[in-house]
Prior knowledge:
The chain has 128 residues and is of the alpha+beta class.
Amino acid sequence: MKNQATIDKILSTRQSPKLLKRYYTGYSQLYIINLFNAEENFLKIGSSFFCLNRRFSSKKIMPYEYKIICQIVTKEYNNLESIFQNNLSEFKYDPKIKFGGYSECFTNESLNSNFLSRILKEVHNVSE
């Protein structure tokens, strides 16, 4: 798996999403969200220094409904978003409705990839 040491370091230093506010706190997050409407259902993997309510504050900014699958909050950012996206490139998805970050979307099948399923399992185990 690519960049395993970086992923292990970030997972070991992750913090609670409650640290993210509507203003910059020094923490960043990688988020995995399920985006959907009546016609489409897919994932977006992105990053933000702010809580998701601020990041997706209107229908103009985020034209899809969304459900949070995972948030990894850390000060050890180190290109985590690009590591995830590179490992999931075969699952790339092009949404019908364009929005900021539309190029960071993937099919739901990416949840079954070895890379993402391992990360989600580890995040879930740490959260318990």
